[in-house]
């Protein structure tokens, strides 16, 4: 069986000025290191999925450079906004091929639904009634077509065991679960935001978090802490029968050590 090969990469935190630093790390440099490894993958991915916080300052200049990086690859690329992003600037720059503004699409026997959990002015996430209706309609169609479903958003719908980070997860996650629980063909939910690997299963659905391409948050930390570990990305292989496999690939060459003395984010 030939799978659909998806690469998820997340939380770039690029700035208008490419030499700007986040907690001592030039995020553009670490992104370039991770992206070089994605470009070298063989066979090439079928699609790329960017799950939010693509820019730290929401600048149009940062999104333009992302498009410049991706355009030569000519791989269909889809994106979500994170809490640091600015949707108007994303819509102005990330809508030209191979980047797509589409939030529902199909590949093989798989349906994808991308949800906007951005709540302007807040670090935590929120799904509007409109987004929940989009999800409901998308899953009804894919169920009728006999497809398997992937859902993606920026914010995790679970607490992840870090007190400081758990204040910024998806609000009213039960509303998302109320929709997902109606359908048996949803296989996995992908998200970013937490800058670390994460997995939890609920009612037969797997929920997967993704590392950042820049700094990594220390798991299970009560207060804000960083972990000195290479950045990375997630690969997912989706098979026609509804099974899948996934792995995180770390990129040691892209590691830029943060300043652990700095607090805040």
Explain the overall architecture:
It is a single chain. The protein has a single domain (4-254), classed as Metallo-dependent phosphatases (Purple Acid Phosphatase, chain A, domain 2, 4-Layer Sandwich). Helices cover 21% and strands 26% of the residues. It has helices at residues 27-39, 60-70, 87-93, 129-144, 173-180; strands at 4-9, 21-22, 25-26, 47-51, 77-80, 99-100, 104-107, 110-114, 148-152, 186-191, 198-202, 205-209, 216-217, 226-227, 232-238, 244-250. Helix 4 (129-144) packs parallel to helix 5. 40% of the residues are buried. The mean pLDDT is 96.
SSE blueprint and pairings:
Layout: E1 4-9, E2 21-22, E3 25-26, H1 27-39, E4 47-51, H2 60-70, E5 77-80, H3 87-93, E6 99-100, E7 104-107, E8 110-114, H4 129-144, E9 148-152, H5 173-180, E10 186-191, E11 198-202, E12 205-209, E13 216-217, E14 226-227, E15 232-238, E16 244-250
Parallel strand pairs: 1-4, 4-5, 5-6, 8-9, 9-10, 10-12
Antiparallel strand pairs: 1-15, 2-3, 7-8, 11-12, 13-14, 15-16
Helix pairs in contact: 2-3, 4-5
Question: Summarize this, please?
Answer:
This protein has 265 residues and is α/β, with parallel strands linked by helices. It is 21% helix and 26% strand. The chain has a single domain, classed as Metallo-dependent phosphatases (Purple Acid Phosphatase, chain A, domain 2).
